[in-house]
Amino acid sequence: MLLGKVVGTVVASRKEEELVGLRFLLVKACDFDGKPNGAVVVAVDAVGAGVGEVVLYVAGSSARQTKVTKDRPVDHTVMAIVDQVEVEGESRYVKD
After folding, report:
1. Per DSSP, what are the bridge partners of residue 44?
2. Is the separation of the CB atoms in 72 and 23 below 8 Å?
3. Which of 10, 40, 75, 88 has CA atoms 20 to 30 A from the CA of 17?
4. What does DSSP assign to residue 13?
């Protein structure tokens, strides 16, 4: 799993039938403090995440392992909303 921050949404009114009903988020990789620092990907939202939240997302075949994405043509899926990140006993990120 990868740590990222939701920085936006994507709306596509016309799409492949297998993607109908899915919500798309723009997720940017982030550091332990929740500060964006990497590439942006479009990810399917499987947990109801919102813009500004730090999340765990997956890529590749793992992205198709949720009830929402099973057997669908997706490469990235948000699978968890992060409440806290602790590194070596130090709290680095805590959700507001």
Report:
1. 24, 77
2. no
3. 40
4. S
Q: What is the pTM of this model?
A: 0.94
Bridge partner residues of 87 (DSSP): 90
Looking at this protein, which amino acid is placed at residue 27?
A: V
d(CA 19, CA 60): 16
Token digits for 59? 């890529």
Structure tokens at 17: 């039938």
Question: Structural domains in the chain?
Answer: 2-94 (2.40.50.220)
- Note the pLDDT tens digit of each residue in 29-68: 999 999 999 999 999 999 999 999 999 999 999 999 999 9
Of 89, 96, 87, 88, nearest to 31 by C-alpha is 87
CB 43 within 8 A of CB 58: no
Cα(34)–Cα(95) distance, rounded to whole angstroms? 9
Phi, psi of 60 (to 5 degrees): 75, -145
Amino acid at 96: D
